[in-house]
Amino acid sequence: MSRFIDLTLNGVSNGAIYAAVAIAFVLIWRATRIVNFAQGGLLMVTTFIAFSVEQATGSYWLAFFVALASGLVLGGVVERVLMRRVEGGPPLNAVIATIGLLILLQAAAGMIWGGTPRSFPPAFSIRGYHVGGHTLFFSPFDLFTVIAVLGMAVLLALLFRATDIGLRLRASAFAPEVARLQGVRVGRMLTFGWALAAMTGSLAGLLIAPAVFVGPNNFDPVTVFGFTAAVLGGLDSPVGAVVGGLLLGLSLSYVAGYAGSSLVTLAALAILIAVLMVRPSGLFTSTRARRI
After folding, report:
1. If the chain, 292 residues long, is cut into consecutive pieces of 10 residues, what is the mean pLDDT of each piece?
2. How far is CA 1 from CA 10, 14, 65, 238, in A?
3. pTM of the complete model
């Protein structure tokens, strides 16, 4: 029973990170109908920036907030400089652009910081809590991970549901032509949406970095799992992204614990294929995709 509890807690912690990446995918998909395959590269660069700041200043929290701010800026720059050139065009153009951006970011990171993975400190202790003489596979840093992701999800929900800018973001995503007639700067809203998505991805990078180290290609698996979580929950549903991330985290944790860690990637692929075959719109999608 204790093993099941440990695997469940570990699945919740990892699932929260997958949920953060999934939300980043959902934010951009809802706004532009583009799957941002460069998401892993964006969060990788901002985590490297956090690593550099932490090494220079010794302050984890300064590095933490600098990384989030860097993600906000980088996401906006990518949309204005690159993605705006392909938005509204053939879908394949956007796919090629994001894959090319991913390769460019990984190559640039390798040239700037090198290809050797770097260790990144956690915000809190990674020693598991002691309960009844048993050490849980769940630490203060894992608790911080879950709280940070859920807090970010709540703040995004409040932004979209309770503020004027959130209403403009939603209008720009679902009815851009009508939004323009109402005086909404749709281009600016799309830029802000990309910025929010990149910042959300930056949070995921900071939270997973102590476990996978920081390297140009070290964040590829979490990006794949985040995309799987987004598809599982529904690319149109932020709530689905959170639930999909937690479900995927639990599933992969049980697979790793009972069948072996070597089967984790295969299990994620099986889940992705099963969702695409049975319910390709995801578990929580209720809106129809608008035409491109």
Report:
1. 85 93 90 86 94 93 95 92 82 89 94 90 86 80 93 88 82 77 81 90 93 90 92 87 92 91 90 87 62 38
2. 14, 20, 39, 33
3. 0.89
Which residue reads 């951006």 in tokens?
A: 101
State how far the Cα of 234 lies from the Cα of 78, in Å rounded to an integer.
24
| All structural domains of the chain with their residue ranges | 2-113+140-278
State both tokens at 16.
């929260």
The answer to whether domain 2-113+140-278 has CATH 1.10.3470 is: yes
Q: Decide if 209 contacts 20 (C-beta within 8 A).
A: no
- The span from the CA of 152 to the CA of 150, in Å, is 5
Q: How far is CA 105 from CA 49, 108, 111, 182, in A?
A: 13, 5, 10, 37
Question: For 166-174, which contacts have Cβ atoms below 8 Å and span 24 or more sequence positions?
Answer: 169/31, 169/193, 172/31, 173/30, 173/31, 173/32, 174/30, 174/287, 174/290
